[in-house]
Amino acid sequence: MEDKGSGRTTIAIDAMGGDLGPEEVVAALALAYDRVPKLEHTILTGDRERLLPLLDRADLGDDARVAVHHASEVIEMNDKPLQSLKRKKDSSMVRAIELVKAGQAKVLLSCGNTGSLMAGGTIKLRMLEGIDRPALATVIPNQEGHFILIDAGANPDSGPEHLVHNALLGKIYSQIALGVENPRIGLLSIGTEEGKGNELTHQTHAQLKKVSHLLNYQGPIEGFHLFENHVDVVVCDGFVGNIVLKTCESLFHALKDYLKEELTRNSLRKFGALLSMGAFKAMKSQLNPDYYGGAPLLGLRGNILKAHGSSSRDAIMNAIRIGTEIIARDMNQHILDEIREANEVLRREQKSPVL
Question: Taking the model in full, what pTM does it have?
Fold first, then answer.
């Protein structure tokens, strides 16, 4: 199999980094070619001797749309990010990043070590012009649909300009992933009043108002607004965002276990649960994280999608779907255009004399 991607439409997939192994990745790829019409070409990076038999069993062995780029090493989940990048230069993750850097692929998808992926992507791909730091965006379900949380953990220490950039990145990703034409943007704080919050939220709020022609900015929001369909994009620094994300994941799992325990406590409750099965299936579908299987690291010169380490084939397939939308919508060009305009506005404001 040749590993020369078309660049414009190719997705590189780190086939070795996930907890469930390359078997799940190949199964996901087979699903994607069946269900994602825009998917044209993929390059799997990893152990060729393991991947080729898996592709044969999935009827993809002779498929011209699939290629394998051999990599002899794997970055493990417990490897330290910078050390792993230096010591495992022939890892499936590093080789996939290099394919994006070389223009042989337009998007990289990995279920591997998050720290190594973010460090490798930032070091090797560099930032888009006008952006200082990348941000991790993730999709979270709410009462009526979903919202984007950004930054979900890439940068714990951010300044106001970084959060303004996060708002623009989140807006564009919401348009692509959620299909929202004019996303509502909210700045996560401890109150909706302008006087509440810390110095970071005060300064960010002031700057977001200055670029309101680029953003449908709704102002500061509180934690209980997250699940009320109040906004489509929630903006915060990576420290707060990562706490919110992990708290949400933990709460969803706790509620699931609690409901299962209570609804099976006796025969009467089991009967009631059986009658409510349709409602439970609808709720499970709404809360299913697999539909948005990849969180993009936004702001880099190449596109990186990070899927959960234990992602199922459905989650990986949906991450591939998101990758094809990123390519089709030319996401980074839209980011460049809006960041350039926002930075120019903020620079003019800084130069204006104070009366």
Answer: 0.88
